[in-house]
């Protein structure tokens, strides 16, 4: 059987050949069935394309392209991919053609990509035209006419060659009929036999089709291609966007016949190796939060992050063995009814305020319950806007949702797949987004990287990357799909096949399979693999728990990712303030917050992550004083100036009624910090002004006690700077 060739076949050409080649497509219809070759695409049985066993160049059949008189308006064509993904490739296309009749025109082959590349026309009276497009969109042709190009009712050998630069040549029965001095303007990634636009009244037969492709040696020092295969990973079983509380099932990870067992498998990975001989590694972007936040599943302890829990429970050993990375995927689902028809759904929201809190809570649960802090992220449905990008950038350095040049909108509930990457760079090079326009390079400290769906765009982006590497530019290619897709293992094999094909086509270009975080470090030239050490000190001042956090090196995050979990399972962010380059301070009042567990998740500027989880009650240290204070006292706030959070120490000499109030510069009360009866002792008040605008504030303490010291009042000046 002659059709797609899985292994590269090099051979010496005849004296008429122009270059050493690799067969990338071959079809002789030897199976006697058009459907035996999966390379043929978009074949509609209504099109007048058939196999004919009565006329062939080599048995048992040929492809018949015909429209009878009564079908002059019907289309008659078939298409196949060529594996020629760039205009720099030299290649050769040959067909044996038997022409029975030509009334208006016949098209033995039309080569196209983003527009038409070139076409061979059979015209009446033996005229053959080779047309190369200078402008493939507006049809600006350069034409070679051969007046005696064919005679009817015999097999003729047609061959077109391209030198990879500036010349397209036509051979008929081995004789050069002429050349067109023109570079191809679009890569001929697709071959069409017949006319896909209009019906025609010609009949011809095609047999023994062959496309061979030359390789491209790099002109200078080549770049490296990093390939990151990944999956948006989460169970679909039991997930229903029309039901608020889903009872999802995690058989995707627990069932031995599921895709997870097939692909998180050392033997499967050894089938696919990079230029260094290392097996393919994978990044699993595990879905958390959103629809899972309301799941009633009993198959995992924490459904909110159930996908992470399940992959660790069933595949932790193999994940470590094959060297995969567990990363974070979040869909901005909101249970609501935006069209006000009285029916709610899990809809994609474009209002960050509707999911900001849940997103942060999901990270907190990853840290506290999952013992993971994500350094790589993919936004659900590729959704992004500048505010969302800026929020993610403050926490996670590496993002992979750029699906340039795609865009899509949706207004029909249940709403999903809203995204716009139409203005984003299309090259496979990570960039720092702008804080005001995520689609263009700017000053955010993290990176966005282009990511293509395995089935739809992998081949094009992979060959584009190898082509850029041939020009000396390092490339980072990300291809994604969904673990639950039935053919997911075959998609991975196909990606590897395309990568191996590209590596062969671009001689001298090496590629590496990488994970998200390590791959980005490799692309940046960062060699640091040591995560920051986290040191935590906790003390108890009355009802206030103070937490001091310090690190062994600078961290990526500008605000400390500090989370608290209460006895009833609620998780929320905890405000903190930075006191030095490597240390932060936080505090909370136990009677108000009831935090039982504290989680800290960070990474350094390279992306090495660290997590610390602490039991507050078991580790807090009570602070005691030797004697009661002799008088009321209000200390200076610290820090001051401050960014959101500051603390003020105060002393109470006798049982008293205390009130601490915050005023703005105009004397308006903006917050009551404390209003309580206090026993004698030393205390610390936490002033949380994170929701207030920058400016000067006054913090006033008033106290009175029956039979004790006279009433007391003191005021301290605060400067809030954000």
Description:
- With 722 residues, this protein is mainly beta.
- The protein is built from 11 helices and 43 strands.
- It is elongated.
- The model is unreliable at 1-19, 69-73 and 618-626 (pLDDT under 50).
Main CATH class of the largest domain: Alpha Beta
The outline comes out as elongated
Estimate the helix proportion, in percent.
10-25%
Number of distinct beta strands = 43
Describe the biggest sheet? Answer: 9 strands, antiparallel
What is the CA-atom radius of gyration, in angstroms?
Answer: 34 Å
**Assembly state here?**
single chain
Q: Based on helices, strands and strand pairing, what is the structural class?
A: mainly beta
Uncertain residue ranges: 1-19, 69-73, 618-626
CATH fold assignment of the largest domain: TIM Barrel
Q: Helix tally?
A: 11
Beta-strand residue fraction = 35-45%
Distance between the amino and carboxyl termini: 70 Å
The structural domain count equals 4
Give the overall average pLDDT. 88
Query: What's the CATH architecture of the largest domain?
Result: Alpha-Beta Barrel
What topology emerges from the helices and strands here?
Layout: E1 10-11, E2 21-27, E3 40-41, E4 49-52, E5 62-66, E6 76-81, E7 91-102, E8 106-113, E9 115-122, E10 128-135, E11 140-146, E12 155-162, E13 168-172, E14 175-180, E15 190-195, E16 202-213, E17 225-233, H1 251-254, H2 259-263, H3 266-270, E18 283-287, H4 306-322, E19 325-330, E20 333-336, E21 345-348, H5 356-368, E22 376-379, H6 386-393, E23 398-402, E24 407-408, E25 419-420, E26 447-453, H7 454-470, E27 475-482, H8 488-505, E28 511-513, H9 516-524, E29 534-541, E30 544-551, E31 562-566, E32 571-573, E33 576-580, E34 583-589, H10 590-593, E35 595-603, E36 609-615, H11 616-619, E37 633-634, E38 645-652, E39 656-664, E40 669-678, E41 681-688, E42 695-704, E43 712-720
Parallel strand pairs: 17-18, 17-27, 17-28, 18-19, 19-22, 22-23, 23-26, 26-27
Antiparallel strand pairs: 1-2, 2-16, 3-6, 4-5, 5-16, 6-15, 7-12, 7-16, 8-9, 8-15, 9-10, 10-11, 12-13, 13-14, 20-21, 24-25, 29-30, 30-34, 31-32, 31-35, 33-34, 35-36, 37-38, 38-41, 39-40, 39-42, 42-43
């Amino acid at each position: 059987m002659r059709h797609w060739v899985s292994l590269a076949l090099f051979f010496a050409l005849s004296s008429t050949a122009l270059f050493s080649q690799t067969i990338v497509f071959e079809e002789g219809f030897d199976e006697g069935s058009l459907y035996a070759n999966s390379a043929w695409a978009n074949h509609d049985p209504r099109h007048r394309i058939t196999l004919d066993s009565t006329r062939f160049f080599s048995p048992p059949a040929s492809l018949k392209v015909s429209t009878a008189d009564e079908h002059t308006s019907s289309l008659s064509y078939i298409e196949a991919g060529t594996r020629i993904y760039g205009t720099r490739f030299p290649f050769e296309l040959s067909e044996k053609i038997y022409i029975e009749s030509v009334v208006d025109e016949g098209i033995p082959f039309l080569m196209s990509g983003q527009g038409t590349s070139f076409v061979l026309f059979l015209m009446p009276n033996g005229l053959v035209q080779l047309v190369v497009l200078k402008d493939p969109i507006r049809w600006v042709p350069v034409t070679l006419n051969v007046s005696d190009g064919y005679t009817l009712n015999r097999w003729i050998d047609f061959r077109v060659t391209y030198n990879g630069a500036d010349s397209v040549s036509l051979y008929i029965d081995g004789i050069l009929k002429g050349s067109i001095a023109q570079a191809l303007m679009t890569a001929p990634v697709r071959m069409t036999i017949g006319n896909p636009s209009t019906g025609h009244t010609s009949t011809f037969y095609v047999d023994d089709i062959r496309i061979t492709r030359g390789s491209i040696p790099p002109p200078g020092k080549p770049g490296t291609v990093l390939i990151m295969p990944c999956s948006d990973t989460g169970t679909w079983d039991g997930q229903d966007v029309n039901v608020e509380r889903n009872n999802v099932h995690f058989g995707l990870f627990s069932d031995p016949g599921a895709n997870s067992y097939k692909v998180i498998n050392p033997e499967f990975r050894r089938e696919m190796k990079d230029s260094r001989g290392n097996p393919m590694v994978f990044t699993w972007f595990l879905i958390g939060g959103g629809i899972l936040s309301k799941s009633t599943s009993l198959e995992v302890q924490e459904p909110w992050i159930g996908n992470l829990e399940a992959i660790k429970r069933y595949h932790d050993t193999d994940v470590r063995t094959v060297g995969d990375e567990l990363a974070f995927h979040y869909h901005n689902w909101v249970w609501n009814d935006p069209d006000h028809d009285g029916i709610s759904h899990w809809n994609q929201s474009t209002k960050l305020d509707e999911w900001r809190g849940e997103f942060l809570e999901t990270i907190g649960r990853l840290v506290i319950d999952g013992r993971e802090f994500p350094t790589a992220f993919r936004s659900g449905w590729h959704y992004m806007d500048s505010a969302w990008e800026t929020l993610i950038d403050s926490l996670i350095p590496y993002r992979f949702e750029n699906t340039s040049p795609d865009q899509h909108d949706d207004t029909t509930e249940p709403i999903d797949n809203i995204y716009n990457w139409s203005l984003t760079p299309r090259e496979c090079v990570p960039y720092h987004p702008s804080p005001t326009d995520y689609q263009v390079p700017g000053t955010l400290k993290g990176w966005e990287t282009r990511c293509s769906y395995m089935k739809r765009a992998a081949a094009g982006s992979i060959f584009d990357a190898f082509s850029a590497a041939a020009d000396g530019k390092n490339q980072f290619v990300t291809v994604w799909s969904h673990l639950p897709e039935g053919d997911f293992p075959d998609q991975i094999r196909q990606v590897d096949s395309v990568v191996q094909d590209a590596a062969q086509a671009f001689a001298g270009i090496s590629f590496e399979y990488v994970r998200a975080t390590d791959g980005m470090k490799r692309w940046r030239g960062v060699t640091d693999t040591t995560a920051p050490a986290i040191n935590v000190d906790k003390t108890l001042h009355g009802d206030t728990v103070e937490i001091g956090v310090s690190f062994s090196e600078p961290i990526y995050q500008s605000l400390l990712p500090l989370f608290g979990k209460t006895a009833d399972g609620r998780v929320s962010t905890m405000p903190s303030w930075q006191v030095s380059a490597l240390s932060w301070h936080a505090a909370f009042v136990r009677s108000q917050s009831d935090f039982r567990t504290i989680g800290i998740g960070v990474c350094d500027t390279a992306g090495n992550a660290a997590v610390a989880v602490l039991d507050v009650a078991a580790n807090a240290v009570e602070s005691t004083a030797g004697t009661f204070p002799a008088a009321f006292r209000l200390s200076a706030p610290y820090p001051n100036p401050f960014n959101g959070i500051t603390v003020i120490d105060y002393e109470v000499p006798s049982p008293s009624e205390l009130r601490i109030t915050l005023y703005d510069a105009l004397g308006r009360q903006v917050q009551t910090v404390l209003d309580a009866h206090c026993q004698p002792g030393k205390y610390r008040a936490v002033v949380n002004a994170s929701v207030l605008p920058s400016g000067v504030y006054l913090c006033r303490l008033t106290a009175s006690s029956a039979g004790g010291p006279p009433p007391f009042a003191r005021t301290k000046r605060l400067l809030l700077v954000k």
